[in-house]
Specification:
Layout: E1 5-12, E2 22-32, E3 38-42, E4 48-55, E5 59-62, E6 68-69, E7 73-76, E8 83-87, E9 90-97, H1 99-105, E10 117-119, H2 132-137, H3 143-157, H4 165-176, H5 183-190, H6 194-205, H7 209-226, H8 233-236, H9 244-255, H10 259-264, H11 270-280, H12 291-294
Antiparallel strand pairs: 1-2, 2-9, 3-8, 4-7, 4-9, 5-6, 5-8, 7-10
Helix pairs in contact: 1-4, 4-5, 7-11
Length: about 325
């Protein structure tokens, strides 16, 4: 199922005022033989939106959800399970929501959307993003222009009221700290009692704080393994794991398979975006080079600079 294809990934860095609320903007350009599909498993992450620009919308499911065709504007809530997906010939935009972005833009509790997919065009909680689908499908906008239009549209929305923003940033920063191992430490760092911390995490992060800390520990280990080809699983374990057996239990819980089974599967999509995804999730250091340059996919000209000097961004 995973041969006879090409994958191009373009990565766009949104304007500075949008970065606290969104992860990076991606465009996947996938070409397959007519009878071929690409299959992959995406690790747990924050909420994400995908807009099919042309071609076949993705098929997928989170955890025990069946793999089924999804709509052109598909939303995945915050996940604690793997997203198993299949793609055919298509061009698909991806845009992730940070927890602070959920608070600012989404009219609903994150825990009500966790570990599930939905049609963003019909769910009123995501109404602010619905205009992005016809925008990316407009034949007048080639990809680079579409990225600029997406950026401009989101900037128009960024002044929305958000009374919990600073509190969410404090929780998020503490969650990303590998030294924070326990719920009590997370609450102390955020300046919250345990009940308030639980409410904030469910409302904007999608899960209880204990699960969020477990997920972060797991993602750091997965990042160590996948971003360093010389490491084996034992060497990749996060310092918070007591032993390898504990890690294997977490791996089964989050990915639905063992580490060995995961390593044996090809990862044609994830291998191309892993570094940026893990940086977005706070499981790996921020990257100093755009994804499209790291993985030798097509570079996007910015202001006529030489290709090896470009840092991708969107002109206002």
């Amino acid at each position: 199922m995973d041969t006879g294809f090409t994958v191009e990934v373009r990565y766009y860095r949104l304007s500075a005022e949008l970065q606290p609320f969104f992860t990076a903007l991606y465009l996947f350009n996938i070409t397959c033989q007519p009878d071929r599909l690409i299959e992959d498993w995406l690790h747990p992450e924050w909420a994400a939106m995908r807009f099919t620009m042309s071609g076949i919308p993705p098929a997928g499911g989170v955890g025990r959800e069946p793999i089924a065709p999804r709509p052109p504007f598909v939303v995945t809530g915050p996940t604690s399970k793997a997203l198993h997906f299949r793609l055919g010939t298509s061009r698909i935009w991806g845009l992730g929501l940070q927890p602070a972005g959920w608070a600012k833009f989404v009219a609903g509790r994150a825990s009500d959307y966790s570990d599930r997919t939905l049609d963003g065009s019909v769910d009123p909680a995501f109404a602010v993003f619905a205009p992005l689908l016809p925008l990316v499908q407009d034949p007048m906008f080639p990809p680079d222009r579409a990225a600029e239009e997406i950026n401009a549209y989101l900037i128009q929305q960024v002044d929305r009221e958000d009374s919990r923003g600073e509190l969410i940033f404090r929780v998020h920063d503490a969650l990303r700290d590998p030294e924070v191992a326990h719920v009590a430490e997370l609450g102390e760092r955020a300046g919250l009692g345990l009940r308030s911390l639980e409410r904030i995490c469910l409302r904007y992060f999608g899960f209880p704080p204990k699960l969020l800390l477990r997920r972060q520990r797991f993602l750091r280990s997965l990042a160590h393994y996948m971003l360093d080809p010389q490491r084996n699983w034992s060497e990749a374990l996060d310092a918070q794991y007591h032993d390898q057996a504990q890690f294997v239990r977490d791996f089964r819980s989050f990915m639905g398979m063992t580490p060995t089974e995961y390593a044996e599967h090809p990862h044609p999509i994830l291998n191309r975006i892993m570094a940026q995804r893990m940086a977005d999730l706070g499981a790996a250091p921020e990257t100093d080079m755009p994804t499209i340059l790291r993985y030798r996919t097509e570079a996007v000209p910015i202001d006529g600079e030489p290709e090896d000097k470009r840092r991708l961004g969107l002109r206002r």
